[in-house]
Structures are given as structure tokens and as C-alpha cells.
Amino acid sequence: MIDGKDLTEIALEANAADAAILDTSTIQFHEDFRKACEKNVCRRYDTNWMGPPAIGPIQKLMKKAVRYRQGMLFQTVHSIAGNFDMKGMLEAAKIHDAVFRDLLHRIRQKYPSEDFLPLSAGCCNICERCSYLDGEPCRNPGEAVSSVEAYGMNVIALQKSAGLSYYHGKNSVTYVGLILFNKSE
User: Fold this and answer.
1) Dist. CA 167–CA 29, nearest whole Å
2) How many CA atoms lie within 13 A of 59 on its CB side?
3) β-strands 116-120, 146-147: how paired?
4) The whole model's pTM is what?
5) CA–CA distance, 37 with 108 (Å, rounded to integer)
6) CA–CA gap between residue 127 and residue 81 (Å, rounded)
């Protein structure tokens, strides 16, 4: 049986800065967040099975997400040199991804028969080169994850609905991950 409190404890053990449980009914979806993907803001559009357009239409993804009743939202917070410290932001993203992967591994070990929908910050990067670019199937479908943004979710609203602070001070960057699940009765 999945216990939301247990999931947040696992997140903190995996070095998340904070974590909270939210109901999927509070998730705000908006196509503008997905359109940022389509405008290639992350420079990964049309390069990855887990990102647009390969991941599928936003309406389908929104329906998939709300089939889960709850989610565990977690944050990693990182110090950077300033607003334009791209190197620091990229390094922070790598650290976030390591925390996300460790957290997901721990959850899957503890709840091996449960169905989860893990979403992280940015497009999947499990493979050095995504097989999408070569017209081949995903090499790691069990490890591949999409982003919160690809699903059209408002990240700031997610954090607010979960009771987590979005702003952690000047010269910091915050990344989030969301693991959707159905709490066992």
C-alpha cells in the first residue's frame, strides 16, 4: 500500500530539499507550457521519445496524468552565481536528475507492483543519444521519463498547491519532479 508520507520521507532521504503530496485535481494544465516546448526553449524539441512531438498530444497526456489521484512533488534547490549562470544551472540540473533517479529507484524498490507516472524537470536524458533521432524504439522504456512541462503543467502553481515555496532566494535555482500515483485504500 502506497503511503504519501512514506514517499516524502524517501524523497528527503534521496536529498530532495523538500517534498509534499498533492491531489491531481489541483494540477493546473495549460497548453502554453507545452508551447514553450514546441518553441524549443530547452533546445530539445523533436529530439527525444519523451518530449514533444514524440510524446504525443497534450490532451492525451493530461488525461493520462489525471488518472492518478495523487502526486508527490519534490524540489532540489541549488546555489548559482547569478541569473545568467548557465553553467551553474546546467550543473544543478544534473544534480537534480541524479536525485530524481535515486528517488525513483528507491520508490520502485519499495513499491514494485505499483503504477507510477514519474515526471521530472526537462526532457529525458537517460541515453547520451536518444534512439528517436535514429528512428529506432526507445532503448530504455522503463527508465525514460518525460517532463512536467511536456504534460502542460504549471510548475509554480504545482508548488503552491503542494505548499512548497518556489523562491529560495537570490542566486538560487529550484528544480522539481512529480511522481503521480494512486494511493491504495
Assistant:
1) 21
2) 0
3) parallel
4) 0.93
5) 28
6) 29
C-alpha span between 65 and 148 (Å, rounded): 10
Residue 65, amino acid:
A
Q: Which residues are paired to 38 by β-bridges?
A: none
Q: Are 126 and 143 in contact (CB under 8 A)?
A: yes
Residue pair 182/113 in contact by the 8 Å Cβ criterion? no
pLDDT, position 156: 94
Q: Which residues contact 180 (CB under 8 A, 6 or more apart)?
A: 24, 65, 68, 70, 71, 116, 117, 118, 119
Residue 176 has pLDDT above 70, yes or no: yes
Q: Are the C-beta atoms of 179 and 157 separated by less than 8 Å?
A: no
pLDDT of residue 70: 94
Give the Cα separation of 123 and 17 in Å (integer): 21
Domain boundaries along the sequence of the chain: 4-181
Cis peptide before 52 (omega within 30 of 0): no
Q: Both ends of the chain: CA-CA distance in Å? A: 8
Instruction: Give the pLDDT band (50/70/90) at residue 40.
Output: confident
Comparing C-alpha atoms, which of 19, 47, 45, 63 is closest to residue 152? 63
Which of 80, 32, 34 minimizes the C-alpha distance to 60? 34
- Per-residue pLDDT reduced to its tens digit, 53-72: 999 999 999 999 999 999 99
